[in-house]
Design goal:
The complex is a heterotrimer of chains A (about 80), B (about 400) and C (about 450). Chain A is mostly beta strands. Chain A has a single domain, classed as Ubiquitin-like (UB roll). Chain A is built from 1 helix and 8 strands. Chain A has a 5-stranded mixed β-sheet with strand order 2-1-7-5-6, with helices on one face. In chain A, strands 4-3-8 form a 3-stranded mixed β-sheet, with no helix packed on it. The longest helix of chain A has 7 residues. The radius of gyration of chain A is 11 Å and the shape is globular. Chain A starts with a strand and ends with a strand. The mean pLDDT of chain A is about 95. Chain C has 3 domains: about 210 residues, FAD/NAD(P)-binding domain, CATH 3.50.50; about 150 residues, FAD/NAD(P)-binding domain (3-Layer(bba) Sandwich); about 55 residues. Chain C contains 12 helices and 22 strands. In chain C, the strands form 6 sheets. A 5-stranded parallel β-sheet of chain C has the order 3-2-1-7-18. In chain C, strands 9-16-10-11-12 form a 5-stranded parallel β-sheet. A 4-stranded mixed β-sheet of chain C has the order 4-5-6-22. Classes of the chains: A mainly beta (about 80), B alpha/beta (about 400), C alpha/beta (about 450). The interface between A and C is large, with 39 and 47 residues. The complex binds flavin-adenine dinucleotide (FAD) (2 copies) and FE2/S2 (inorganic) cluster. One flavin-adenine dinucleotide (FAD) binds next to helix 1, strand 4, strand 8, helix 3 and helix 7 of chain C.
Amino acid sequence: MSPTFEFDGAEIAARDGQTIAGALIASGRASWRTAAGAERGVFCGIGICQDCTVTVNGAAGVRACLRTACDGDVVEPESR
Amino acid sequence: MRVVVVGAGVIGAASALALARAGAEVVLVDRAGIAAETSSRCEGNVLVSDKGADPAVRPEAELAIASNAMWRSLALELDAERGDGPATELEAKGGVVVAFPQGAAPLTAFAEGQRSIGIRAEVVDGAALRALEPHLSPEVELGVHYPDDAQVQPSLATQSLASAAMRRGARLVLAEVTAARMRGGRIVGVETTSGAIDADAVVLCAGPWSGEAAARLGARLDIRPRRGMILVTTAMRQRVFHKVYDADYVGAVGSADAQLQTSTVVESTPAGTVLIGSSRERVGFDDRPALAPIEAIAAKAVRLFPFLAETQLLRTYAGFRPYAPDHLPVIGEDPAVPGLFHASGHEGAGIGLAPATAELIAHHVLGSATALDPAPFLPGRASLAEVAA
Amino acid sequence: MSRRHVVVLGAGPAGLAAAVAALEAGARVTVLDEGERLGGQYWRHHEAITDRRLQHGWERFERSRDRIAAGIAEGRAVLLQRAAVWRVDVEPLRLHALVGKPDAPGRRRVVVRGDALVLATGAHDRALPIPGWTLPGVTTAGAAQALAKRDGVTVGTRTLVAGAGPFLLPVAQSLAIAGARVVEVLEASRLPRHAAGWTARPWELAAAAGKGLELAEYARSLLGQRTPYRTGSGVVRILGERRVEAAVVARLDRAWRPIPGTEREVACDSVALGHGFTPRLDAAIQAGCALTEAPPGSPRFVVADPDQRTSVDGVWAAGEITGIGGADAALAEGDLAGRSAAGTPHAALAAARRRRDRTDAFARRLEAHAIQDGWSSWLEDDTLVCRCESVEAAAIVRASGSASRALRLATRAGLGACQGRTCGSSVEALCGERLGLDARPLLAPMRIGELLGGSEATA
Ligand SMILES: Cc1cc2nc3c(=O)[nH]c(=O)nc-3n(C[C@H](O)[C@H](O)[C@H](O)COP(=O)(O)OP(=O)(O)OC[C@H]3O[C@@H](n4cnc5c(N)ncnc54)[C@H](O)[C@@H]3O)c2cc1C
Ligand SMILES: Cc1cc2nc3c(=O)[nH]c(=O)nc-3n(C[C@H](O)[C@H](O)[C@H](O)COP(=O)(O)OP(=O)(O)OC[C@H]3O[C@@H](n4cnc5c(N)ncnc54)[C@H](O)[C@@H]3O)c2cc1C
Ligand code: FES
């Protein structure tokens, strides 16, 4: 089954077991957060740098590179 | 006149500035640097709200009221001198002390006492309370608003005080003070790890290490450390607008109990993080991150602001409040070692009390004028002697 | 047979080897790892997505995984995956973990007790700050690797791989297999033919170093793509408006200073940076383990005795945290640590020690790729060094050397969301002093509510 989640209003189809970051990249996005006005996406890819964080189902600060995309997740971009 | 100030925390830095302003040649000595210890491991609250009107603690309340006013003018001056950015980040945001239902009566009584000594303290409830702090738990029914509570960024403010002193000729020496130089029963300087420094007076502002440092200088001073831990969250949209704390804070300050106590203080910083303090424990200088205090602080904070349950924690830190057995600051000349002056024991209020303490030190050392009453804080006071005996 | 309960933190090559060895020695074993799957960095994978060509030493992984599964069936092993260990107490030994989806609120709070602890927390990439390195499309080399292996994606289609060390080669290969074109691989170190390090062609390795075959394979795939591999070169600036559009590449001298006049622009839409690795020491520091000495900005490691014991009673260390040596060293160290932690006496460990010692050769070779001081000369005043708090290089340099903790705190460098994990070494290098950023009271992010309501104890 391939999970589908919502990102910033868009429907994103992920491969089963893919991370939210992987699925966002596969959808053509390189960035999904802003820091001091500049765009950020994945940097370390393994949960160290916190650059990739998104809000998932209302909880802020979720590392997109660690979190497996689940069907029905509502993912929102963050800015710091 | 040359004065050696030992310790470049907020008390030493403020004292150095006051002494330099009054014309002394100041040498500021610290083994770790400016704001290297307690003054960068605390919160920067400049409070009047936690000061009670009871006779035993009233002198500190009066010192706090005066010091709070001094901070405001000092911050403006320091900002103007620095020129390239805020020097203290003073925010006069006000405090809100809240009570859960059982605590409402003691809090309103406490506030009434405070009003009698001139502290502005307005009881707020219902819509007025929610307007001040919309994210407070619905469990909270009553609060007291203290418009005069403020905060500074403590390490930055300490740095700015020291810089201002140095602009007035004070010199910084990075060294540890190891012994006194005595002549004719009077202290005439200090020995340090990088040589001796002669002086006409020595002001000891060694924070929680003041007892140990006093012993090195041939004096007896009972100052002990009381550990406090603080939780820091990740940066977020502002949802806490004042310093908000739980009325049980008031009980914890004066208590001598060694066991873990916590009282919640929640506040936002300009960086967007929320600081949640804090605990009080007598565990010596143990700075390993302990678990019990952070669990206790977390539980109380979430009770106050339920949204904090989902807030991410960034780190915790610990500092050591310097306290005297009678819980009053110790400011003045040592009864046994002429020429040695103490400025310590400020416990959980050293940031707030720094400007007034510095004014008293200039008064004691140089005879500068002051409207403050020095008597309650003198090192030779009876309440200290009793405990020492 | 050992009756000890050995707790292993980390399920990369070192941790898995330790767990298997401890099981073999008869101990009870609990393994904790924050990852979704076992394998750590080296064996990062996804059953359906990972291209098998990206897996090396896979049989060893499968054997380890199966051995642990057998241990679980026997009732001697417990595996806690998606378990973020946020605190380690050693007196008595207790690991505090949050188990559940990463960063989700309300994870299960678990406390694991045990008799012996093997720390195998591994490493993460070290990427030096470069003007433009915060642009989307710039990742660490490890991120490129992880995204390719686990998610089957690449951040761009034309990627420049730059940094130092042999790890750049598998990264380039993964990118190629996952569908990106690797435009160049830039190695900052100059690797003279006769020096103690690599030969000019990195695949010409002594088989004794263990990596010979694997690296030769990477090299073939680079050649197949006609990707140039240049030594003594690096990226000194990354260009683009909203994402990477090009990079400026320069020749570097021995100290890694860009040589004026050698700059050229390379078109690319992504850059993978890896200037070596930073060991994940925070659990070891919290446990009180002694570390090696090193100048500010250079990595320190956990001090381990010949049997991988740390300075703290009951705590062993293995893998990248005791020295960057790659997967083979991690495996050999883990094996030794696991046996020793399970109570096998020193005298019975001679063979395991010999196997470990043979991997030293590779680790020593890596020294030729160590970061050189000249890198800071490619910074601009406004280059962000601390990514979390957006702190510029000039601000850090201004605060450096001051006797003031206040000034350093006031820059906020290292105080942001990653707690100095990304910029810490660079900030310390620029300040010329250690700032203690790696002594972290919380080993993993957690939510305040997760501190409430007590925890579930496992024996
Ligand atoms: C968790 C916590 C929260 C707090 N919150 C607040 C608050 O909100 N508001 C408030 O007003 N107060 C607060 N405080 C209290 C406040 O931090 C202290 O009262 C204040 O910082 C003390 O300043 P100090 O200069 O006396 O000590 P320190 O800042 O500790 O300075 C003492 C200096 O002396 C130096 N020193 C010691 N011995 C020697 C020697 N032999 N030779 C040379 N140098 C020496 C040390 O290196 C140090 O730099 C808090 C404290 C804690 C722990
Ligand atoms: C992103 C990345 C990709 C890499 N890819 C390769 C490659 O393809 N080929 C190669 O030869 N080398 C690669 N390496 C080098 C790698 O360091 C070694 O090859 C090898 O994986 C080291 O083994 P280890 O067991 O010491 O550590 P790791 O493999 O890093 O394993 C450490 C484990 O500890 C876990 N951990 C750490 N802290 C905690 C905590 N607080 N709570 C819970 N779990 C924790 C981590 O999740 C991780 O699984 C890579 C390194 C990185 C950083
Ligand atoms: S990319 Fe670094 S934490 Fe996700």
